[in-house]
């Protein structure tokens, strides 16, 4: 019991330090974050406290307002910190894979299912919306990668809807910071068992990059595919 308490006490400073570090990093790019968080907290607490006085329960509503103000502040802080992080990752090879890894429950992601020697890459995510192919790189080149990957998958998952997204800031593309929101908004057409079956079929198909060790997150620039490796499609 004492060991568990000691471990928890040791973990708390680490979490607080991480939050402080995240705040400092976010503040470098978002100078107004302190004012925004303070405004969110004060306004939320003030509204509930005022309601409490109006209905004759200021203590109860005050406590509730404090808790909700803390929650609202945490949510706003998380979103703004995420936006800054995505802004820093924008344009880096493999950045979309990092976003897909943190998209949330219900999605199974496989990074780099297709790639060429110019480091244009296609990632795959499977969820209740079907299969989503997310490409990053030169828009003209990734279109051929997407078409080849769709053709490859069509042999075993022709009955599953496939969406394709090109990450970028150009016309018809999706900005990195909006990638998660775009995928979450896709209509859900598959059931849980259908998602599992789709993943199993795709796993049996194999991935183009399955034999190549790739680091998680953004890939370093200048990485070249080894000769004699998987054949590009």
From TrEMBL:
Keyword set, alphabetical order: Membrane, Transmembrane, Transmembrane helix
Transmembrane segments: 33-53, 59-78
Signal peptide region: none
Residue ranges, compositional bias (Low complexity): 219-233
Coiled-coil segments: none
Region (Disordered): 210-233
Name this polypeptide is given: DUF4191 domain-containing protein
Lineage: Bacteria, Bacillati, Actinomycetota, Actinomycetes, Kitasatosporales
């Amino acid at each position: 019991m004492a060991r568990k308490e000691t471990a928890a006490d040791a973990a708390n400073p680490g979490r607080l330090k991480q939050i402080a570090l995240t705040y400092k990093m976010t503040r470098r790019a978002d100078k107004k974050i302190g004012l925004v968080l303070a405004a969110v907290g004060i306004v939320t607490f003030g509204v509930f406290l005022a309601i409490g006085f109006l209905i004759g329960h200021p203590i109860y509503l005050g406590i509730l307002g404090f808790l909700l103000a803390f929650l609202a502040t945490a949510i706003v802080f998380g979103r703004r910190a995420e936006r800054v992080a995505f802004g820093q990752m924008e344009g880096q090879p493999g950045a979309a894979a990092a976003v897909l890894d943190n998209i949330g429950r219900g999605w199974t992601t496989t990074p780099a299912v297709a790639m060429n020697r110019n480091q244009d890459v296609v990632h795959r995510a499977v969820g209740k919306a079907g299969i989503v192919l997310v490409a990053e790189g030169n828009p003209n080149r990734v279109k051929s990668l997407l078409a080849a990957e769709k053709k490859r998958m069509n042999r075993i998952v022709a009955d599953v809807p496939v969406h394709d997204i090109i990450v970028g800031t150009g016309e018809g593309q999706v900005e990195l910071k909006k990638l998660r929101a775009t995928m979450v908004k896709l209509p859900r057409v598959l059931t849980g068992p259908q998602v599992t079956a789709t993943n199993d079929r795709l796993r049996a198909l194999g991935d183009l990059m399955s034999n190549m060790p790739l680091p998680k997150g953004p890939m370093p620039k200048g990485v070249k595919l080894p000769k004699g490796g998987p054949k590009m499609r």
